[in-house]
Design goal:
It contains 16 helices and 14 strands. With 445 residues, it is of the alpha/beta class. The chain has an 8-stranded mixed β-sheet with strand order 3-2-1-4-5-6-7-8, with helices on both faces. A 4-stranded parallel β-sheet has the order 10-9-11-12, with helices on both faces. It has a two-stranded antiparallel ribbon with strand order 13-14. α9 packs across α11 and α11 runs antiparallel to α12. The model has no long low-confidence stretch (mean pLDDT 90).
Length: 445
């Protein structure tokens, strides 16, 4: 299948790369000429484990071409997957300007195309958007025979394991106006040898149902993280061991994925914050005030302050000056993504509590230096230099690079020499002893 992917960001690059295999060829279309040049030079502007080598291999095999022209991209493609950004607006809902621009460009380019084309919305959008975009295109077509098909195929990429998850999907959601549109989406996966016909993971929905599924999916996962932190806060207040209690609670097979039941500074990233806010804002346009999800956002926003207060009381109060090192500043492990990272407000709260007497150094193996400077106002330092310098060392992201024995030995040496280590993500299992719900004391192995 000849596939056009519109948008050279995280979703677009991952989608293009993972579909560019077997019988498929992909045209990756991006209007930013600087990014086009970067992609044509096989230099990816994002980090995702395994993506760089897969992209370069697809380029070497002639499976991916890159362009900034809608006309050239449409000419040889059968299906277009729109993967442009839909950032959160100041009001909390979705900014659809990039989406409308992409649909306008597609509509114009499609007018001279004789074959029926399938447009697939892959970006996260509020319910009703795909149908609105289809109506926009149809309005500009005079020949009904050539109206494009419309499908909604939400992405469920997990940063840090997106390539594996794309090639081994837990579910494939296809929203369709007509079955032929859904068939075209699935054919791309059949031709890539990712799926076989009749796969039970395929869920066929309407356009609006598929749009809603994506928002609810992320809002439920975000709620799990917030519910975990709320529960941990209550256990602290009662004076009981959170991990013993939650371990018993999770004996119920109906409840929870353990990945989302580690207490910490809260959720972040590009999806959970935007989608909980987007779902809440959309519900209110329909006359329903989503109090629970409003509370999810409120509780998540407060969580870094709660962690900071615990840290300050335990390790930093009473000192004239305290040196704090942070290893890992991205919102989660194995990504370079700093969007809505809870480590930023955690550091800000510690600075407030320290009244100017707490100083910081930070390190991260994946985050880009320029982005770190813009977000934190600090420069990245070498991991070992930060560990040796700090009085208190905070492990802020659960990078797989931090799970090795050498890293654990470095943390143990820090404590052995009189320093303190705090695992903000509770990500090391039996390698840390928990005090209350916090993993704070490194166990020598």
């Amino acid at each position: 299948m000849e596939i056009l992917v519109i948008g050279g960001g995280y979703v677009g690059i991952t989608t293009a790369t993972c579909l560019a295999r077997e019988k498929n060829n992909v045209i990756l279309m991006e209007i930013d000429k600087k990014r086009v040049a970067t992609l044509q030079n096989d230099d990816l502007p994002i980090f995702e484990p395994g993506l760089d080598s897969l992209y370069k291999k697809a380029r070497e095999d002639g499976k991916i071409t890159v362009t900034d022209s809608y006309k050239e991209a449409i000419k040889n493609s059968e299906i277009s997957m729109v993967c442009v950004g839909t950032p959160q607006s100041e009001r909390g809902d979705y900014n659809l300007d990039y989406m409308r621009s992409a649909i306008e460009g597609l509509g114009t380019a499609l007018r001279g195309k004789k074959e029926r084309h399938t447009i697939v919305v892959r970006s996260t959008v509020p319910p009703g958007t795909s149908r609105e975009m289809l109506a926009t295109i149809e309005y500009n077509f005079s020949n009904q025979e050539h109206y494009p098909n419309m499908a909604m195929h939400p992405e469920h990429l997990v940063e840090g394991s997106a390539v594996h998850d794309f090639l081994n999907p837990a579910k494939i959601i296809v929203g369709q106006e007509y079955s032929t549109a859904g068939d075209a989406v699935l054919q791309a996966y059949y031709d890539a040898k990712i799926l076989k016909k009749g796969d039970p993971r395929i869920c066929r929905l309407s356009l609006e149902e598929a749009e809603t599924e994506k928002l609810l999916s992320n809002s439920w996962l975000a709620s799990d993280i917030t519910l975990t932190n709320e529960s941990a806060n209550i256990c602290d207040a009662v004076g009981v061991d959170f991990y013993k209690v939650i371990g018993a609670v999770l004996k119920d097979p109906r409840l929870g994925n353990r990945k989302f039941t580690r207490a910490g500074p809260g959720y972040g990233g590009s999806c959970f914050p935007k989608d909980v806010a987007g779902l809440t804002a959309f519900a209110e346009t329909k006359g329903y005030k989503a109090e629970y999800f409003r509370q999810v956002m409120k509780t998540n926003k407060a969580q870094p302050r709660i962690v900071a207060e615990e840290l300050h009381q335990r390790y930093l109060s009473g000192f004239e000056e305290k040196r704090v090192g942070v290893l890992g500043v991205t919102f989660k492990g194995d990504t370079d993504d700093l969007r809505e990272t809870p480590i930023k407000p955690l550091i800000e709260e510690l600075k407030k509590l320290g009244k100017g007497k707490t100083i910081f150094r930070i390190s991260d193996p994946f985050a880009k230096r320029e982005n770190v400077k813009n977000v934190f106002g600090m420069s990245l330092k070498d991991m070992h230099d930060v560990a040796n310098w700090a009085d208190l060392l905070i492990v802020g992201s659960d990078h797989s690079q931090y799970q090795g024995q050498d890293f654990i030995n470095m943390l143990y040496a820090k404590e052995h020499n009189g320093g303190h280590v705090f695992d903000a993500k509770n990500s090391f299992g039996g390698k840390f002893k928990a005090v209350g719900r916090w993993a704070t004391e490194v166990v020598k192995i």
